[in-house]
Amino acid sequence: MRSKRCPVECVTPADGQWFVGYYDKHPWSADGSRLLVHRASILDRAPGERDIVELGSIDLTDPEHPFTRIAQSTLWNWQQGAMLSWLPGAENTVVYNVRMGDPGSDELGVWQLGGGVVHDLTTGNRRTLERPVYTVSPVGDCALSLSFARLAETRPDYGHAGVEDPTIDDPAPDDDGVYHLDLATGKSRLIVDIERVARHEPPEFSRGRTHWINHLMFNPSGERFCFLHRFWREDGNMHTRLFTAQSDDGSDLRLVFEGMISHFDWIDDHTLLAWAGQRKLLAPGAAGGAGVRGRVLRSLKPIYYALGKPRWLMSRVVGDSYMLLRDNGSTPERFARGVLTTDGHCTVSRDGRWMLTDGYTDRLSRLPLYVLNMESGKAMRIGRFRTPRRLDGPIRCDLHPRFRVDALSVCIDSAMGGRRRVYLVDVSGVTGDA
After folding, report:
1. 186-245 pLDDT per residue, tens
2. Exposed (0-12), middle (13-18) or buried (19+): which is 48, by Cβ within 10 Å?
3. Residue 298 three-state SS
4. CA–CA gap between residue 168 and residue 385 (Å, rounded)
């Protein structure tokens, strides 16, 4: 693979710990002049229920890159922040999550589960939502939510401190799951419950396991959305199923892929690009039984980490790769196999010409950054950024790269200097040459 060093600029001040959040959020304003960011005071521990994160924007037109504070929240985590994002179709309006009580104020909220806030930065008007936002429709009229309380128990990286799940003792509750949020009224309704998903073409080994839903994402038109259904198998492996459904009512539920799926992005209304694998070698039906597989996996895990999470192990031995997954029943297709050989937070540019992704740390604690031409299939490594070894697991600082709308600039989160900062990577020398 070719490599090219692209110009990198830090755009956040030296004080505090700065980050944008998850790779599927669009922090750039419509004109590209402002970037939404979070500022925290802690560095190397998970946030508690009273740890404050400031929400605001960086002015990219000013060489000093001043920060303008919008609000604060205690409903956040290192991976996804407070779900801060611009509201599509609404000028100068943002969406974020807070603990309810006094949304967006300088006082800590009191309602554990929290809720979303739609904040007009021009007028200062705020309206509150019954539930916290997970993802906002590209149309800007609605959002989707899920149980962050259940995530706090099943995947703490993506949950919130200080919340309790009243259904956690139920392996597959029928009164929790994916919620539709009306952004005009703030009202919510359950459209896909966990019990329904768990009994949809259920694998035999899923019985009795604790099920949860994560990673909701609208397709480009906003008419459908996808999500991951997960549970821990008896052998210690996390089993994942990718579903799609209608956004308005959760109908027409479709099981798209099953096995391992991590990060993904929509290419068009019915095609997803995802790092995935069926992992037949590690499947419950493989020879040896769950007990033997579990012992083998537990013995291999420390070796895998000691070797710097080698890419070849998952791509060549286990068989994971980027794949094109379609919810119309078409057979999955491998994508960029042998070119991109590591799991990463993948996004596709608005015009569909470019793919952007990162990877996990190598033996020197460096995080790679890649751009791939979707037509030619050729990829280029445009950077490798060191990260402190102590920032791993739930407190890790992934790059979470995101294109600006014109695909000429990329923003990343990085702790390359020992603290969390936000950087811009000028990729115009790669994407502007085609």
Report:
1. 999 999 999 999 999 999 999 999 999 999 999 999 999 999 999 999 888 899 999 999
2. exposed
3. helix
4. 39
Residue among 148, 45, 28 nearest 84 (CA): 28
CB distance 403 to 347 below 8 Å? yes
Task: Give, rounded to a whole angstrom, the gap between the first and last alpha carbons of the chain.
Answer: 18
Stretch 152-180: mean pLDDT, rounded?
93
- Distance separating alpha carbons of residues 430 and 241, to the nearest angstrom: 35
Cα separation, 135 vs 276, whole angstroms:
22
- Count CB-CB contacts under 10 A for residue 302: 9
- How far apart, in whole angstroms, are the C-alpha atoms of residue 215 and residue 272? 13
Place of tokens 């000691």: 306
The pLDDT of residue 102 is above 50: no
20-29, 57-66, 100-109, 187-196: which has the minimum mean pLDDT? 100-109
Q: Is residue 131 predicted with pLDDT exceeding 60? A: yes
pLDDT at 108 over 90: no
Does residue 107 or residue 70 have the better pLDDT?
70
Beta strands in 121-187 (DSSP E): 126-128, 135-136, 142-145, 177-182
d(CA 181, CA 142): 5
**How much is the mean pLDDT over the chain?**
90
Q: Coil, helix or strand for 317?
A: helix
Task: Quickly tell me which residue has 């740390």 as its tokens.
Answer: 361
Contact by Cβ (8 Å): 348, 354: yes
As a dihedral over the C-alpha atoms of residue 213, residue 215, residue 216, residue 219, rounded to 10 degrees, the angle is: -140
Q: Give the dihedral sign, CA 79/157/396/215.
A: negative
CA distances from 399 to 130, 131, 300, 349, 413 (A): 31, 28, 26, 17, 5
Cβ pair 37, 12 in contact under 8 A: yes
Contact 85, 136 (CB under 8 A): yes
155, exposed or middle or buried, with CB in 10 Å at 0-12, 13-18, 19+? middle
CB of 260 within 8 A of CB of 276?
yes
**In terms of Cα–Cα distance, which of 119, 124, 11, 138 is closest to 73?**
119
Alpha carbons 24 and 313: distance in angstroms, whole number: 27
pTM, rounded to two decimals: 0.91
Question: Which pLDDT belongs to residue 280?
Answer: 64
Show Cβ contacts of residue 389 under 8 Å, excluding neighbours closer than 6 positions. Answer: 365
CA 126 vs CA 116, 200, 260, 422: distances in Å = 10, 39, 40, 27
